[in-house]
Design brief:
This protein is mostly helical and 356 residues long. Helix content is 72%, strand content 1%. A two-stranded antiparallel sheet has the order 1-2. Helix 4 packs antiparallel against helix 17 and helix 5 packs antiparallel against helix 7.
Length: 356
């Protein structure tokens, strides 16, 4: 029964995403997205613009960020009010993946060649940028939204998108400089910005929409819910980093983080505790960068991390962060603004995170 409840909500989310990014954009879509230009734009050009984005969205994805947003709104008594705004979260996430794959020279995403490999780097960059801005179209069409409320949503979106790009800048700077070893605290800051901020945005947006719908704003702390979602995002990133070099992430090649020279939490724990291993780590990074995931140095580094126990330690830290977020979202206490049904649905979502 619980699975059916998530399925129904995910189907609604997919319908909204399909509305704003259809397989074949028509003139009605163009009129909503390009006011005043619809009659002058060749439909083939619309398809050329959206095809790379639609390619990535159609490959699936967990959609946990928009699901989190809608569940938070529901749990605060806002019903489906946040549903029309799911592109603000999911489109921006997918846009960041398109650009991230270009910046990292990644070959695969969600089981297929990366978008820039299929469609070309130029089209992928342009379509990725467009997907960020397309997400804003849903604000303009949101019914009964005052200019003040519209400004609040725009401001929230823009603030978190700036943070997202700062986090990406940190990650790029570190993997471009093999000799640079950030601190563990710096790593957590990067994760909060690059991965945690979209989760935080999702929770705060869901709460803000509920407040706009009439929930008593005094009883709702978006900061409190946002901080919990940020923990969830960081925990998710850590577990992803661990899976990349252990079981592998579905749709990506095992060990491609080593090829990238990624300063993940396991690598940083290893380097800071055993600084004498620095030369070995960077030798493996350089060899993997040249030889790809099949280079023997990829497995050499993975085995070293495993033997040192840092993979298991990082996994525990990721799961602990998700467990902390789960406690904040789902604990039945008098001061919690979330209703019982909403807490149960959020609990099931976060339980799935821990099982993965």
């Amino acid at each position: 029964m619980m699975d059916q409840q998530y399925t129904r909500r995910l189907e609604k989310i997919e319908a909204v995403l399909e509305h704003w990014l259809p397989e074949t954009p028509d003139m009605n879509w163009a009129a909503a997205v390009f006011p005043g230009l619809a009659d002058t734009v060749n439909p083939l050009l619309l398809r050329a613009l959206t095809a790379p984005d639609k390619d990535l969205l159609s490959r699936g994805g967990k959609r946990w960020r928009p699901l989190l947003m809608t569940l938070v709104c529901e749990a605060l008594g806002g019903g489906d009010a946040a549903l029309p705004l799911v592109p603000l979260v999911e489109f921006c996430h997918n846009a960041s993946l398109i650009h991230d794959d270009i910046e990292d020279n990644s070959n695969e995403r969600r089981g297929k060649p990366a978008v820039h490999i299929i469609h070309g780097v130029d089209a992928a960059i342009n379509s990725g940028c467009f997907l960020y801005f397309l997400s804003l179209a849903c604000i303009n069409s949101w019914a009964n939204l005052s200019k003040q409320r519209e400004t609040e949503v725009y401001t929230l979106w823009a603030g978190y998108l700036r943070k997202l790009h700062l986090g990406q800048a940190m990650d790029i700077h570190w993997h471009r400089n093999f000799d640079l070893i950030p601190s563990v605290d710096e790593y957590f800051t990067m994760c909060k910005l690059k991965t945690g901020c979209l989760a935080r945005f999702a929770a705060e947006l869901g709460a803000a929409v509920a407040v706009m719908g009439g929930v008593n704003p005094v009883s709702v702390s978006t900061e409190y819910l946002g901080a919990a979602a940020e923990k969830l995002g960081v925990g998710f990133q850590i577990l992803d980093d661990v899976k990349n070099v252990t079981s592998g992430i579905p749709g990506k090649k095992r060990g491609d983080d080593v090829v990238e020279g990624k300063k993940s939490l396991p690598v940083l724990l290893f380097l800071h505790r055993w600084p004498e291993k620095r030369e070995m780590v960077f030798r493996c990074f350089n060899a993997a960068h040249s030889g790809g995931v099949c280079a023997p140095e990829v497995e050499e580094l993975i085995q070293a991390l495993m033997a040192a126990g840092v993979l298991a330690e990082a996994e525990d830290q990721g799961k602990n962060l998700i467990a902390e977020a789960r406690e904040i979202f789902t604990a039945p206490r008098p001061d919690s603004p979330l209703n019982a049904e909403g807490r149960a649905l959020l609990d099931g979502l976060l339980e799935e995170f821990i099982r993965q």
